[in-house]
Amino acid sequence: MDSSLSIKDRLIIANQYEILSRLTEDPHEKKQFENFRDIFTAGFSRYYSLATEYFSDELSDEECKFVIDVLSLYRDLYYSREHSVKAKEVIDEKDVLFNGFDLNDETEVKYLSFYEFLVKQLGRYEEIKELMESGKIESFNSHGFGPSMRKLKKMIDKRKAILKSRDYGYSDDLSIEEIQEIING
């Protein structure tokens, strides 16, 4: 957070914390909001960052699109395998399930947060929620057991090239060969 705020900005922020302190019933939150209110009221710029310590870095439009591309990729892979008896025989289900992003990797933490937001809060990619409930996907966190970022990008590029080569230009079930080509990067 900027270490120098105008009085107007400080007044707005302090008032927001005053409102929050009056709305909460949790005594710990109340005290925290009152402390933040006092920090901005008094202009203790050294402590402004306390109010934003839980904020994460902003995700660019390109990064959001990457997460959506990953989820769409795995949706296509999973459903293409599910719709083909032959594909089920030759392609292991674990290869078409998205393990999530690694919470231990600083870059992937941002992706994981957006991924979780899309599924939990916006209700997108309902199949992921269903796969988690069935135990096929453990959690949003891969714990390092998913493909690397470089491999995911290669897989996305391969899927896009396959879809671009089709006359109709959208995703329909992928063939066994296309699934394998994507998985192998």
Tag the structure with descriptive keywords.
185 residues, mainly alpha, yfbu gene product, domain 2, 8 helices, elongated
Mean pLDDT comes to 91
The Rg value, from CA coordinates, equals: 22 Å
Order of helices and strands: HHHHHHHH
Oligomer: single chain
Principal-axes geometry comes out as elongated
The total strand number stands at 0
- What percentage of the residues does DSSP assign to strands (E)? under 5%
Can you say what the CATH homologous superfamily of the largest domain is? yfbu gene product, domain 2
Largest sheet: none
Unreliable sequence segments: none
Structural class category: mainly alpha
Number of domains: 2
CATH class of the largest domain: Mainly Alpha
Count of DSSP H/I helices: 8
Q: What level of helicity do the residues show?
A: 55-70%
Question: What is the CATH topology classification name of the largest domain?
Answer: yfbu gene product, domain 2
What is the level-2 CATH architecture name of the largest domain? Orthogonal Bundle
Any overview of this molecule?
It is a single chain. This protein has 185 residues and is an all-alpha fold. It folds into two domains: 7-52; 61-183, yfbu gene product, domain 2 (Orthogonal Bundle). Helix content is 59%, strand content 0%. The chain is built from eight helices and no strands. Helix 3 (61-82) packs across helix 7. The longest helix is centred in the middle third of the chain and has 22 residues, at 61-82. It starts with 6 loop residues before the first helix and ends with a helix. 19% of the residues are buried. The mean pLDDT is 91.
